[in-house]
Prior knowledge:
Layout: H1 12-19, H2 31-42, H3 45-59, H4 63-87, H5 94-101, H6 104-139, E1 155-157, E2 163-165, H7 170-185, H8 187-213, H9 236-247, H10 267-296, H11 307-315, H12 318-352, H13 371-387, H14 394-418, H15 433-446, H16 451-475, H17 477-481
Amino acid sequence: MTRPKYLERKSVVQLQTDASTGEHLQRALGAIDLVTLGIGCIIGAGIFVLTGTAAAQYAGPAIMLSFVLAGIACGFAGLCYAEFAALLPIAGSAYTYAYATLGEVVAWIIGWDLLLEYALGAATVAVGWSGYMISFLKDVGITLPASLTAAPGTHVVLTDNSTITAVFNLPAFLAIIALTLLLMIGVRESTRFNGIIVAVKLAVIVTFILFGVSHIDPAHWTPFIPPNTGKFGEYGFSGILRGAGVIFFAYIGFDAVSTAAQEAKHPQRDMPIGIIGSLLICTLLYIVVAGVLTGLVSYKALNVADPIAVGVNVIGLKWLAIVVKIGAIFGLSSVMLVLTYGQTRILYTMSRDGLLPPFLSRIHPRFKTPHITTLVLGTCVSLIAGLVPISTLGELVSIGTLFAFIVVCAGVLYLRYTQPSLYRPFRCPLVPFVPVTGIFICLYLVFGLPQETWLRLFVWLIAGLFIYFFYGHSHSVLQQDRR
Length: 483
């Protein structure tokens, strides 16, 4: 039976050949660089915001168990990512894996979906970064014009309780622009900068833990699992499950590690270390921070935008509050950097496959980076960050990530049964249990998202399919090779 053209696949051998021909990205990243890349993206809004919100609304002190469950859930997908990243050391992440298993049109859908996830994710984090930066500047006596601190139409309350309507979020815009320029200069410079940022924010988090432990009041942990209110997800064991679903999205940054496969020095060895290592480190930190935070403050008081700051206030050290704010600024900076990096590498790979115009895969002769792609995406994301008040798009970012996880888990199953003798530098253990479990967990979380999220994703995918059928399919390198 002839396979439809839209479902044509690239063989594993062909993908591996593609990675070694044509213009090359610079292989400059070692295992430690990849681990810090993952930590840089995972530790950000999750630890500085979601920990308190999920504890207050869903799980209470048992949010620690929610983090354990979420970490295990991500571990299933992470092991599947690690197998693919070692087998196919190419920059396209889930897009490339889908191309090898489910066919071209599915790969396009996933790639288009990932672009939305990374772009909106970076813009959202930029808006959060702007808030922390504005607050920190006020602490040191610098006040920005209120009209340039939020998206157009946003009402900003001044110190005299009067309001002004903002016209542009300048800090958010400049943050993305600065990181875009850094990424254009080179991946080695970017990862060094990310490594410094990661070191600073880890130091801040460890400082919070060390000072917080001595101020813990065990009474705040009682009851450890608050009784359910009668509604699913409001405390009790269902609250632990709901909390795991919410904070699951704090872990999504590990998939960005796989986009660096084509720039890893020894991808077969280092990619699994980067993915699994960053997941393990971040899961441990999340659990410990959640334990300290709920021990410092009653979980009922943590439904705020800055729960870590609330915990610091209990400790009573003003300097520590400033340090935590700096840590949040650095933490969110690294998330923006990795998300911006990830989306440029996916777009670069789609362009090399012919599904997008070829100028997007041009490599700078000196810096060895996809400079045009980086500039185009950076400009778009910076404008989104400066002009759009992003308050309800978190679910849209999440649904894109979950679909990518499902495809990767399914892809591992497919290749294991169709090409069992294929050499795999890293093998996902306990197949089919691990990928099947990963698929079911992600499906459970996907179907729990609001209908509005599905509608927004549907509109975005329809626009993407329009581009594919009117440009991508006719220019596809794979289709041209088989004519």
